[in-house]
Specification:
The complex is a heterodimer of chains A (about 425) and B (about 230). Chain A has 19 helices and 11 strands. Chain A has about 425 residues and is of the alpha/beta class. Classes of the chains: A alpha/beta (about 425), B mainly alpha (about 230).
Chain lengths: ~425, ~230
């Protein structure tokens, strides 16, 4: 272990890790005030390890960001006997649970760094990170994320979920198609809070990632995925089931854009040699279906979305003049003026918008965070168009639309390259 | 009588010629200095223009909102304006040095004052430029935050932020230049106070509903229809 990582971890945590010795499996749990859900998640993890990996040496590492609701105590307090009781599971090895406070306030970067450092120190062969917010975790998820690493030699396992057709639209309308077009890999969930990885990838990312880049560590999970793609590590997907969270964070669009689109746009700069040489895209080996769509009827406040999109286009014209080309801006203004019946934010216009934003981000035409914030109202417009188009759409219709959007991203990639190279 | 007139005239001509002969070398020195100054100013202008182009000063100026002001005033680009300004300042400085060589009484002091004033002028211009940059940054940040929070009249808010910063920056600039310091101080105090009072009254009267809605959102559970489109984007 390098000195930087040793000094990053607290003495007490290093001492606890030393007592554990080497492990085969490491489960990372980044938490912050998750007392409501953490108990059941830890029990599920323990039962998953007992059922699927009874002979492996395993440890649960809780990286806590200053919880005040007793979350760390809950993690370390749950005995393996509680899980064994009432089931036919038997542990052949000791299952350790260690909790450490990495900072007084939550920071996803520091949390992942703690988990990766622990994995390196314990020489873990296979690791997973679990979200502390999921209320639909099953023991089988442990197996589905770990088996491809333990048995099939993959270095990264990203999840796929059963989702509502209008859930995760930032992923389906931007992250997935753009990463697919640029890096050539069809990763359905590039920004996941549950994923598996090898000890090798953990060590590599730990040594190569710039941990003090001043970005505040937002979107570290996406940067982890992109690093694995960039280095050519074998990646696969594994279907977990329904994605469900205790708290829906729908209104936090700007932070979501900062966590995802920001790291993606900033990765394009150092990765130019990688993505500029890629043409087309390849599917990934997938265990189970690569997606499942729920079609429950939902009520959507389209008026509010429409108002926020139109107001955004009208009020931010001066900002968009710095970011977008005149034809794209004119196209957006036309969409903003159209009525609800003929409201259409086409795939081509959306892709050009995103690519021009990426180029402007690269050229730093204005402050980069302002560029990310300016994308929010336009994304709302795209969401509205998607909602209107697929209000009564079947799962197949929605999947076809996402696929055709992906192809549009791939088709217009030369447009991005041209702008990237030439735009002043 | 005639001889006297001729003698006085020749004496006057001689004195004039003597005086001219006395000033001629100084005049030549002044002209040489003016010419050398023009050359130096031209070289400085060319170098400065290249540096400003290299650091993309025009884009910086665009971000600061200075370019829009220049366009409205039918002036060339910010790089060109700064280069030309420096050219004239340098050349004018050389000309003044040349004039001081002539030894005209009373002018020396004024020239000294000019050179004493130059650093303050540059600092004031620097403050003005970075002030405009800050005003542009914070007004855009306010505009984006207001648009994304669905706050009514985001442009008014943004303009308010810009105006407050510009008023503040201008007061510092005038203080640095030493122009009507007391007047500026009083004017700033009155202007800033009036602005704050106006905002307080406007928020007090016009923002009652907004404050009520904010408090309701903060402390009362949101209505269902407000969260209808709250899908998780991730």
């Amino acid at each position: 272990m390098r000195l930087a990582e040793e000094t990053f971890l607290t003495d007490d945590f290093v001492r606890q890790l030393s007592n554990v010795g080497e492990v085969d499996i490491l489960v990372g749990l980044p938490t912050h005030n998750n007392a409501k859900t953490i108990g059941s998640i830890v029990k599920t993890i323990q039962s998953g390890i007992l059922r699927w990996f009874p002979r492996e040496r395993a440890v649960i590492i809780n990286a806590d960001g200053g919880s005040r609701d007793g979350t760390p105590e809950l993690v370390t307090g749950i005995s393996i006997d509680d899980v064994r009781r009432g089931s036919d599971l038997h542990a052949l090895r000791t299952l350790h649970s260690i909790s450490t406070k990495y900072a007084p306030s939550p920071a996803s970067q520091a949390a992942l760094r703690t988990i990766l450092s622990a994995a390196e120190l314990l020489q873990a062969k296979a690791c997973i990170v679990m979200s502390p917010e999921s209320c639909s975790v099953e023991g089988e998820w442990i197996s589905r994320l770990l088996q491809p690493i333990r048995n099939d030699g993959f270095d990264l396992v990203t999840p796929t979920y059963r989702r509502h057709k209008f859930e995760g639209l930032l992923i389906t309308n931007l992250l997935y198609p753009m990463i697919r077009a640029l890096y050539g890999l069809r990763i359905r969930e590039p920004y996941a809070h549950e994923f598996g990885f090898s000890g090798r990838l953990a060590s590599e990312f730990l040594s190569q990632n710039s941990w003090d880049d001043g970005a505040g560590g937002s979107g570290i999970e996406l940067r982890f995925t992109l690093a694995a793609i960039r280095a050519g590590h074998p990646i696969c997907q594994s279907f977990l089931g329904q994605k469900d969270h205790v708290e829906q964070r729908g209104s936090d669009l700007v932070p979501a854009l900062r966590e995802t689109v920001g790291p993606l746009f900033s990765a394009l700069e150092p990765d130019f040699q990688v993505w500029s040489a890629v043409a087309g895209s390849q599917p990934l080996p997938t265990i189970g279906p690569d997606h499942e769509v729920l079609l429950d009827p939902v009520r959507v406040n389209r008026k509010r979305l429409r108002a926020m999109f139109s107001a955004g286009v009208a009020e931010l014209t001066t900002v968009f003049q710095s970011i977008l080309s005149p034809p794209t801006l004119a196209g957006l203004q036309k969409v903003a003026q159209s009525g609800e019946d003929d409201f259409e934010y086409s795939a081509e216009l959306w892709v050009k918008t995103v690519y021009e934003f990426a180029t402007s981000y690269h050229k730093s035409v204005i402050n980069r965070d302002h560029i990310i914030q300016a994308l929010a109202p336009l994304f709302r417009g795209r969401v509205l168009a998607f909602l209107i188009e697929h209000r009564n759409g079947s799962a197949e219709d929605v999947e076809n639309a996402i696929e055709s959007l992906c192809l549009e991203f791939e088709r217009l990639k030369p447009y991005l390259l041209q702008m990237w190279k030439s735009r002043e | 009588m005639r001889e006297m007139i001729v003698s006085e005239l020749s004496q006057a001509v001689q004195e004039l010629a003597k005086g001219f002969a006395h000033y001629l070398p100084r005049l030549i020195v002044m002209l040489i200095l003016a010419f050398a100054g023009w050359v130096v100013a031209y070289v400085v202008k060319a170098i400065l223009r290249s540096i400003l182009r290299l650091i993309k000063f025009d884009r910086l100026s665009e971000n600061a909102g200075a370019s829009q002001l220049l366009t409205k005033a039918a002036l060339p680009s910010a790089t060109e304006v700064v280069s030309r300004f420096v050219f004239w300042v340098v050349w004018f400085g050389f000309i003044l040095i040349g004039v001081s060589v002539l030894g005209i009484l009373g002018l020396q002091e004024q020239i000294g004052k000019f050179f004493f004033f130059l650093p303050r002028l540059f600092i004031a211009l620097l403050i003005l430029f970075f002030g405009l940059l800050a005003a542009s940054f914070f007004s855009r940040a306010a505009l984006l935050a207001a648009v994304n929070a669905n706050v009514p009249s985001p442009r008014v808010l943004s303009l308010g932020v810009r105006s407050i910063i510009i008023v503040f920056v201008l007061s510092i600039v005038f203080e640095e230049l030493g122009i009507a310091e007391e007047t500026m101080l009083v004017a700033f105090g009155i202007g800033f106070g009036a602005l704050m009072l106006g905002l307080a009254i406007a928020f007090g009267i016009g923002g009652r509903d907004l404050a009520r809605r904010f408090l309701e959102r903060r402390f009362v559970h949101p209505k269902k229809d407000e969260n209808e489109d709250e899908f998780s984007p991730l």
